[in-house]
């Protein structure tokens, strides 16, 4: 109007500019990709608990695995030994009250269960209770990381276990192609052969939950963005401390709650497949931002110059939103 246009022409230009600058395409750029990625992952047996984790997963440059229940199936079997057999009933009496995989293996021994009282479980150390006035504990042997039964702090027996590799474990490590390591509370003689079989040179055994967190904190201080995969009560602090985390569906509830992703089908190849999809999603987000900004950069000067009517502006704005949504839908392919 200051330039001499009448109020009707000036109003048309103002409306056209307002419509052109409507941020619909920018607002849809990220959530549309996240929705499509989450749906695609659910179809593949991966549940996304945090949309922001999709972005964080695309940034990882290091992978850390727990051993028992993650790289292995988490269903260990007790290896019977003459030294431990007499104490199996006592161990089972405590084990029946714990959800730890090794405790479950001992609890299935089928022996009479002694009536322990004052039961308490401490992540990384084991479960304790009292029987006939004596304090017992079934759990970690320091510093080796094995599993033992203690009475009044004295070791009565050590229990040994065997486990089986989880499907897809070897393929998972190869498909990531990133520096990987094992962070395990198990003893070194159980961790080292598994690491060698998977081609993982960096491994740490006998770690407490705090020890796993310390290692992740150390890697983060070096600038690494670490994916942590774990399943048990002992892994929950590490899952929360990692840049992004995975847990299997059969993990302990606290582990599933702490993880950003839960894979439902038990095959570890779900992890690198999810990583690959998230990298595609990150690329599509960048493309969507470029499309939305490019649309505004092209259309806004035309609207200000008076070459775009409100109707054309509305069509162009809608078209930009459709293009962004269509680009996001490429993840469904």
List the helices and strands and how they pair.
Elements: H1 7-20, H2 24-43, E1 46-48, H3 51-57, E2 62-65, H4 67-71, E3 77-79, H5 88-95, H6 101-107, E4 117-122, E5 126-131, E6 134-140, E7 147-151, E8 154-162, H7 169-176, E9 180-183, H8 188-198, E10 202-204, H9 209-221, E11 226-229, H10 236-241, E12 244-248, H11 253-258, E13 261-263, H12 270-304, H13 310-328
Parallel strand pairs: 2-9, 2-11, 9-10, 11-12, 12-13
Antiparallel strand pairs: 1-13, 3-8, 4-5, 5-6, 6-7, 7-8
Biggest sheet statistics:
7 strands, mixed
Strand content is 15-25%
Globally, the shape reads elongated
User: Which stretches of 5+ consecutive residues score pLDDT under 50?
Assistant: none
The average pLDDT is: 91
How does CATH name the architecture of the domain at 46-74 and 164-264? Answer: 3-Layer(aba) Sandwich
Classify the helix fraction into a percent range.
40-55%
Q: By helix and strand content, what is the structural category?
A: alpha/beta
Q: Can you count the beta strands?
A: 13
User: What's the N-to-C terminus distance?
Assistant: 51 Å
SSE arrangement, N to C: HHEHEHEHHEEEEEHEHEHEHEHEHH
Spatial strand sequence of the major β-sheet = 1-13-12-11-2-9-10
